[in-house]
Amino acid sequence: GDSVTQMEGPVTLSEEAFLTINCTYTATGYPSLFWYVQYPGEGLQLLLKATKADDKGSNKGFEATYRKETTSFHLEKGSVQVSDSAVYFCALSDADSYGKLTFGQGTILTVHP
Amino acid sequence: GAVVSQHPSWVICKSGTSVKIECRSLDFQATTMFWYRQFPKQSLMLMATSNEGSKATYEQGVEKDKFLINHASLTLSTLTVTSAHPEDSSFYICSASGARYGYTFGSGTRLTVV
């Protein structure tokens, strides 16, 4: 079945540091890939997505590239801010899964001033 | 953009009572709604998928008689936790899927059973 594996957290960075959160996946077919962000006590917000190989999703300074050869979708940001502190989830949707999202375990990011 | 409203945002109930959680798509028609459960510091576990006008499809291990899902219209789905017990305490999140907007998540409901 489909699965998503994220790097374990928590990740603690200083403001303006470079961020990478690794995400790899296993799926049949050609899934769409997503990054969601969850702030404390809230639901999930879509951060970015990519629907086919070599696509780059980007939003709010975050980027991730759909790498089919390495089955990866790593999240990066060049300079993090304190307001980026949240939990980040990598997810996939397989065309055969009738729209269900499969989530990674989540990575807690804390950014200090 | 697409907005999904989920109510209540938090609820405390006594053991043995039932609790209903509503999920509404405010500005689009959601052909499919998903219900997730999230344990502290863990990922989201899909509980069930509901399509308007039909019975929900439950994931393996989820008790359909305990977690009743109704998707009566294209804008409303409800999750009822029946005879709640402390182990049902969790964060429940709905997601609505429409043709134009993809997946949109509600803000979640924190259920505490005492």
Description:
The complex is a heterodimer of chains A (113) and B (114). Chain A has no helices and 12 strands. In chain A, a hairpin with a 2-residue loop joins strand 7 and strand 8 (62-65). In chain A, strands 2, 5, 6, 10, 11 and 12 form a 6-stranded mixed beta sheet that branches. With 113 residues, chain A is mostly beta strands. Chain B is mainly β. Chain B contains no helices and 11 strands. In chain B, strands 2, 4, 5, 6, 9, 10 and 11 form a 7-stranded mixed beta sheet that branches. A 4-stranded antiparallel beta sheet of chain B has the order 1-3-8-7, with no helix packed on it. The termini of chain B are far apart. The mean pLDDT of chain B is 90. The A-B interface holds A 34, 36, 41-46, 49, 89, 93, 98-106, 108 and B 6, 32, 34, 41-44, 46, 49, 93, 95, 97, 102-108, 110.
Structural class by SSE content of chain A = mainly beta
Structural class of chain B comes to mainly beta
Q: What is the H-and-E element order of chain B?
A: EEEEEEEEEEE
Low-confidence stretches of chain A: none
H/E series of chain A, N to C? EEEEEEEEEEEE
What's a concise summary of this model?
Chain A is mostly beta strands and 113 residues long. Chain A has no helices and 12 strands. In chain B, the strands form 2 sheets. In chain B, strands 2, 4, 5, 6, 9, 10 and 11 form a 7-stranded mixed sheet that branches. Chain B has a 4-stranded antiparallel sheet with strand order 1-3-8-7, with no helix packed on it.
